[in-house]
Amino acid sequence: MKKLITLSLALASVLPLFAQDSTITAKPKKKDWSKINLSNRPNDHFMLQIGYNGWASIPDTIATKGIPRSFNMYFMFDFPFKTDPRFSVGVGVGLGTDNFYLDKMTVDISGRETGQLTFRSDSTYFKKYKIATTFAELPIELRFAANPENTNKSWKAAIGAKVGTMLSAMAKGKNLISSNGGTLSYTEKIKSKRFFNTTRLAVTGRISKGVFGIYGMYQINQFIKDGASPNAGLVDVRPFQIGISISGL
User: pLDDT tens string for the chain (249 positions)?
Assistant: First the structure.
């Protein structure tokens, strides 16, 4: 009987210890990002962007039509942070092209008629008319990837900026419509950078899952030079882009 009482007291003292241990959950070990293998990871070394190209602060006197489009193509170098490679800096080089469409209007971008950037609307016009520009650009991004070991399947985000220099600017009209409605198969091209700021400074941002995502761009300096077209009201035009981004490799 004495032994039974002693055994019962021993069990009574030990069981609470087991019960207490069973309620303790091990804390998850914090991942050491600095030790992961990045030797074979892709991280947006090649990037394509297709987007809507708008002009902020454009006056109502400028009639537009269609969907203005932009196409950008960049090759990027990626430099991950050693302590946390979820973050990296991307630096690259590429080309950006913009097309902006006018409705029943023509524009003298060379200033050969009045010495100014002149927009004109009359009974004779082109069925298709656009202002097209091409820039060589240097983008830089601060990047974040939720899974830096496999960015082609990871959520990613980036903010950055880019500086560009204008390679060409052209006004192009196709198929001339006469005042009586007749169509003449005629194409007019005027090339001139005279009235445009040839340096582009822009802020950028994008978010994606894997290789597909969305992006945005806003030019922070004026697109058209001061005093280039005072009668048209083009005082502070700032191009912007919103579109689809494809990145990888």
Answer: 454 444 444 444 544 554 455 445 556 666 666 667 676 677 889 999 999 999 998 888 889 999 999 999 999 999 999 899 999 999 999 999 999 999 999 999 999 888 889 888 888 899 999 999 999 999 999 999 999 888 889 999 999 999 999 999 999 999 999 888 888 889 999 999 999 999 999 999 999 999 999 999 999 999 999 888 766 667 789 999 999 999 988
Strands (E), the chain: 46-56, 69-80, 87-101, 106-108, 118-120, 125-145, 155-177, 183-191, 199-209, 212-219, 238-248
For residues 129 and 97, give the distance between their C-alpha atoms in angstroms, rounded to a whole number. Answer: 16
Tokens of 145: 């990837």
Pairing between β-strand 87-101 and β-strand 69-80 as defined by DSSP bridges: antiparallel
Q: 76: helix, coil or strand? A: strand
Q: What does the angle CA 241 – CA 242 – CA 248 come to, to the nearest 5 degrees? A: 105
Q: Is 53 exposed, middle or buried (0-12, 13-18, 19+ CB in 10 A)?
A: buried
Contacts of 122 (CB under 8 A, 6+ apart): none
3-state per-residue secondary structure call for 187-224: EEEEECCCCECCEEEEEEEEEEECCEEEEEEEECCCCE
Q: Which residues are CB-neighbours of 35 under 8 A, at least 6 positions away?
A: none
Cα 220–chain centre separation? 14
